[in-house]
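Dear support,

I submitted the protein below through the web form. The confirmation email said the job was done, but the results page showed an empty box. After a refresh the structure appeared. I'm attaching both so you can tell me whether what I see now is the final result or a partial one.
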Amino acid sequence: MFESAVAHSAELFLVQTKDIRSGLVVFDVMLDPEGEAINAFSGTLSFPGDIASVELIDTVSSVAPLWVTRPKESSNTFSDGKIEANIFFEGVVPGGFDGIRSPYYEGKRAGKIFTLVLRPKAQGEGILAFKDSLVLRNDGKATPAFVTTRIATITIPDLKTLPNVPKVKLTGSQKEYEEAKEKTLDAYIVKDDALAEGRFVVLIEDDTSRHTIVGYRVAESKSAITRDVPFFEWKDASSPFILSFQKRDRFIHVQSMYADGTRTTKIIPPVENTSDELTLWRILIGIAIGIFVVYVLQKRHALQSILRHPKNNP
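What the results page shows now:
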């Protein structure tokens, strides 16, 4: 019974793609859905922060097109001086992910969630392990799937024996993403079974390394201008934020508030064709225009017939 459950469980594991002898250690964090469609995932990857530090986290080519929380580093320091580094991640795959297909092999394979590049800090050994892992099925109910994880080991030799590697430079989409973070605040609306029972939500991203964020707030308003939004329409928010007006017929104003008293705002316009009433009016107007066009064409045809055969008409 247990063996059968494990055989059909999703799995989180690490694949080492670069050895420490290169001066850096590189791991791909992988998700194998074991043939079952996965809708969302989250978890924390931990490793000893006293022997290695995060050089780069790369989400290019990730199976997750949407992030509730992009891979984000934090750390805990214990009384004995040991440091536990943690990378929390939470992604969504609309439509589900059941494996990577390719014409070069049969079946489906695991997909990459993100790439982790570590820079050695001190000689020692440690373990990279997942904790608080959660995987949701793409079954319309966001049912939790059984999850197994695999650990990986890291061994850092005497730093004098390693080459001096310059800071890794970002390339491609990841570089564009990092440069886009200069704008600081980003917000977008998604609808997925894995979030808020399939209701529209606002996902909010801000770079806490650049600012001390006091909080977020959101207003759903008929006004397109933020300064004209009534005070009572503003609500304190966290990501994901569930929209009150699920028809998407309001302007969504998202604000990030900082400790220095400044604010950044992003406005998401309404999607008009989600309104049933507006859609009905458009259909009626379309029918009226169609009838008018037919009427004009018939009159034109009759007039042309009279002009071509004047003797046949009194």
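Response: this is the final, complete result; the empty box was a page-load delay. The two ends are 94 Å apart (CA to CA).
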